[in-house]
Specification:
Blueprint lengths: L5 H10 L11 H4 L16 E7 L5 E7 L1 H5 L3 E5 L1 H4 L6 E3 L5 E3 L5 E2 L5 E7 L2 H10 L1 E6 L6 H4 L15 E2 L2 E2 L5 E8 L1 H10 L2 E12 L8 E7 L4 E6 L4 H12 L6 E4 L15 H13 L3 E4 L2 H7 L3 E12 L5 E13 L26 E10 L15 H19 L3 H8 L8 E2 L5 E2 L4 H11 L2 H16 L5 E11 L11 E2 L2 E2 L2 E7 L5 E5 L8 H13 L6 E5 L16 H28 L6 E4 L2 E4 L2 E7 H10 L10 E6 L8 E11 L5 E11 L6 H20 L30 E5 L17 H17 L14 H10 L5
Parallel strand pairs: 1-16, 14-15, 18-19, 26-27, 33-34
Antiparallel strand pairs: 1-7, 2-6, 2-8, 3-7, 4-5, 9-10, 11-19, 12-17, 13-14, 13-16, 17-18, 20-21, 22-32, 23-24, 25-26, 25-31, 28-29, 29-30, 32-33
Helix pairs in contact: 11-19, 15-16, 16-17, 18-19
The structure holds ligand PCD and copper (I) ion (CU1).
Length: 805
């Protein structure tokens, strides 16, 4: 607000627009138990579904006997693959060009796989009936290790036997899905071969799960009289669900209404399409009454979209002075039983090719091999669905390993190699055009804020004290500098199932000067109802408090691709600003008529059009809105509405600098986070308070993943972490007091300069926590130890290094 005078500033502040830490409007209902989640939807005569799930990770299904279950009072139907087959719904297409069983067809491929769907009068009868379904299994050899899968004679996907071409090119083996290559292989190998220094490491980013508070679920209601199907569900992309449902069921798209009501956290877990949705829909079509399906916690952890499971082998080369010359990365990606990743079609490993990170690396090569195993499918989710978390973890570990190889300070190594401010827009070796950045400024600010030199000095003293036997605690300084890539589109290279990744906003100004705007995205807790109103407030001069934001109902919202990959602000946020500008353009014509001047004689002033040079002559947006509906204006249609579909020219590239100071008790393996500093640059900031909340949330999920959270399997393919007894979900007890900070480097192509932020803290946080653990042991010869760094594993690391002797 720098060019505004005091009076204008006051008016601008009243709008609660860009930059205002406006309180979240949705919290009034969330904090008073008035949210409306899928499970809150209750309809007359509604039936309840529940799944029979496989106890085995790999088995032939010899027979299914549903007689006893059907005989139970209150059971209406038991669906198996045989019932779905005539409808061609026993398998469904996945978002990655593969197909997935809706219900077990001949065999099961992971523990917890859906085998039969029981529909009953209530949830409890359904659960009892599940126990009565008799399934005869014949166990088959189980493969949970992707490297073993590529050697094994065991064919996991018999349906693909003999198929040498997959959705993403040739398959090398019957358990192989795809190979995805980016960059220059020969040139990179040449650079690595000639290099003065090469560091090599394999880093495993374990399988984990976002575990949102609300599990997945749906209520389907087929109105046979009107031919209309309504589905309420936990959908991060409701329009996509509508289109897919129409294509699969043959019901015309206008006869399907998909609604995402309040969602209790998404984190990518609710992007995919699950058998439960399909079964609820089929059951409602068959029975003619509404059918509800809600997953329990174990089902959520065992069978819905997991995250990661990436084995990444890297080689990074540099000169003796530390200038990086090349990067080579090979990934073995464990996709589980079906390839159900929700990546844009052309990116089978998401945006993993952002793995050159924030560094000016001239030559690079990436190859990813996707592999089938006997684990749950899904691999998209968790605060960077598109594999940017994996990429950031990989490069930030490689930098640390290279620093060890060079015997150099890791902060300095980063500084030497950062892409410089004047290099933006920057073309990366693996094909991205970074829109804007100022990494050196952010890094210097972060290091100064934590007194980096002081920390290193203290750490060195601690090591000496430890060696003298005066303390049993080591100190780790975790660093990370990340670059995110968010906001898919552009349509020309990003689509999901052929649908281009644009987004949309439709605005309607009411005669009295308040408004409703509808978007193609859907909040799962991010606060869109608060922030998108702020964008509009600044664009059209109507207070955010007078603007309703609505999302998630396909009957009313304009078509959009949904919310994940931090795309809402970069894409729908841009559409919102541009729709606002269309409103303003029409408002200007109306104002010109009312003030009897030419359009060009007006200028915009916060919330009104003013006649240039005659500030006392103006029309406020409120007056203009009234006139738009109530006054005949020659050559101008009545009403004040606009719609904008936005295809972004590029993604946005938020970045950040994080530092974690950790103390580790060598004898117990217990770590304590003394300090966590997070500087985020997401371009123009819409709502600083919401951003801070996003950062706190993302960091806490990063802490979880780095320090203990895991979906672990035993050799038999049993999920060992299917409950909160053994799946780590941090509470206030484990969470430190985060220090947040920022710089502002606007996106040059976004209408208001904003970049996404929701995923950033996770992307940057995981390597930061992990680097802190690794760094604590650097002085004792540790190069790399795998996550999750729970107390037991930290203790083992200390033990391996001889620190208990
Ligand atoms: N610059 C800026 C940016 C942003 N913002 C804000 O913040 C938020 C966020 O954003 P973004 O970044 O754009 O994002 P989105 O799209 O909206 O969202 C998404 C994300 O988000 C996050 N966060 C969150 N939060 C909550 N609460 N919940 C949830 O669920 C969640 N999730 C997570 C995830 S995972 Mo994926 O799906 O995996 O892909 S992706 C993701 C919003 O409200 C907005 O507006 C601001 O203010 N400013
Ligand atoms: Cu992402």
């Amino acid at each position: 607000m720098k060019d505004l005078n005091e009076e204008q500033q006051e008016r601008a502040a009243g709008l609660k627009g860009l930059g205002c830490s406006r309180k979240r409007v949705e919290d009034a209902r969330f904090t008073q138990g008035k949210g409306n989640y899928v499970d809150d939807i209750k309809m007359p005569g509604m039936l309840h579904g529940d799944f029979v799930r496989s106890p085995y990770a790999h088995a032939r299904v010899k027979s299914i006997n549903t007689d006893a279950a059907m005989a139970l009072d209150g059971v209406v139907a038991v669906l198996t693959a045989k019932d779905l087959e005539p409808l061609s719904l026993h398998w469904m297409p996945t978002l990655a060009g593969d197909k997935q069983m809706v219900l077990a067809d001949g065999k099961v491929l992971f523990q917890g796989q859906e085998v039969a769907f029981v529909v009953a009068r209530d949830r409890f009868i359904a659960a009892d009936a599940v126990e009565l379904v008799e399934v005869e299994y014949e166990e088959l050899p189980v493969i949970v290790n992707p490297f073993e899968a590529l050697q094994s004679d065991v064919v996991l996907r018999e349906d693909l036997a003999g198929q040498t071409e997959g959705a993403h090119g040739p398959r090398k083996h019957h358990n192989h899905i795809f190979t995805w290559e980016v960059g220059e292989k020969d040139a990179t190998e040449q650079v690595l071969g000639d290099a003065e220094v090469v560091a090599e490491e394999t880093v495993y980013y374990h399988r984990t799960h976002p575990c949102p508070l609300e599990t997945c679920g749906a209520v389907a209601s087929m109105d046979k009289v009107n031919g209309k199907l309504t589905v309420w569900g936990t959908f991060q992309a409701p329009h996509v669900v509508r289109t897919v449902a129409s294509l699969l069921s043959g019901i015309e798209e206008h006869n399907i209404r998909v609604v995402s009501p309040d969602i209790g956290g998404g984190f990518g877990n609710k992007v995919g399409v699950y058998p439960g949705y399909v079964c609820a829909i089929v059951a409602s079509i068959v029975t003619g009454v509404p059918v509800k399906w809600i997953e329990d916690r174990m089902e959520n952890l065992m069978s819905t979209a997991f995250a990661r499971d990436y084995w990444m082998t890297g080689k990074i080369s540099a000169t003796k002075e530390g200038k990086i010359t090349g990067l080579h990365c090979h990934v073995t990606a464990d996709h589980g039983a079906f390839d159900a990743c929700a990546d844009p079609t052309k990116f089978p490993a998401g945006f993993m090719n952002i793995c050159t990170g924030s560094y000016d690396i001239p030559t690079a090569y990436l190859a990813v091999d996707g592999v089938y195993t006997n684990k749950a499918p899904g691999g998209v989710s968790y605060r960077c669905s598109f594999r940017v978390t994996e990429a950031a973890y990989f490069i930030e570990r490689m930098i640390e390993v290279l620093a060890i190889e060079l015997n150099m300070d890791a902060a300095e190594l980063r500084r030497i190699n950062f892409i410089k401010k004047e290099q933006f827009p920057y073309q990366s070796a693996l094909g991205w055009e970074y829109d804007s950045g100022d990494y050196h400024t952010a890094w210097d600010k972060a290091l100064k804020a934590v007194d980096y030199e002081g920390l290193r000095k203290e750490q060195a003293d601690r090591v000496e004290a430890f060696k003298r036997g005066e303390t049993r605690k080591l100190m780790g300084v975790g660093l990370s500098f990340f670059t995110e890539i968010v906001g898919a589109g552009p349509v020309k290279n990003c689509d999901i199932l052929g649908m281009g990744m644009f987004d949309s906003c439709e605005i309607r100004i009411h005669p009295t000067g308040s408004a409703i705007a509808r978007l193609g995205t859907i909040s799962q807790g991010q606060g869109h109802a608060t922030t998108f109103a702020q964008i509009l407030a600044s664009e059209i001069g109507i207070s955010a408090d007078s603007i309703t934001i609505e999302e998630g109902d396909t009957d009313t919202a304009p078509y959009g691709l949904g919310t994940y990959g931090s795309r809402s602000t970069p894409v729908a946020g841009a559409a919102t600003a541009l729709a606002g500008r269309k409103i303003r353009a029409k408002a200007q014509m109306i104002a010109a008529y009312l003030l009897e001047v030419h359009d060009n004689d007006l200028e915009w002033d916060v919330d009104r059009f003013v006649v240039k040079g005659a500030p006392e002559r103006f029309k406020t947006m409120k007056e203009i809105a009234y006139a738009a509906y109530n006054q005949a204006i020659p050559g101008v249609e009545p009403g004040l509405e606009a719609v904008s579909y936005y295809d972004p020219p590029n993604m946005t590239y938020p970045f950040g600098a994080y530092v974690c100071v950790m103390d580790i008790d060598v004898d117990t393996g217990v770590q304590e986070i003394r300090k966590f500093y997070a500087l985020d640059d997401c371009g123009t900031r819409i709502n600083p308070m919401i951003i801070e909340g996003q950062v706190h949330g993302g960091l806490t999920e990063a802490l979880a993943v780095a320090l203990g959270q895991e979906i672990a399997y035993d050799d038999m393919g049993n999920v060992k972490t299917g409950t909160f007894m053994d799946f780590f979900l941090p509470t206030a007890w484990e969470v430190p007091n985060y220090i947040t900070d920022h710089t502002v480097t606007p996106s040059p192509h976004h209408p208001i300069g904003a970049k996404g932020v929701g995923e950033s803290p996770h992307v940057g946080g995981v390597p930061c926590f992990s680097n802190a653990v690794n760094d604590a042991f650097r002085a004792f010869g540790l190069r790399h130890t795998h996550m999750p760094h729970d107390h037991w594993r930290i203790w083992q690391t200390a033990n391996r290094l001889g620190l208990h002797d």
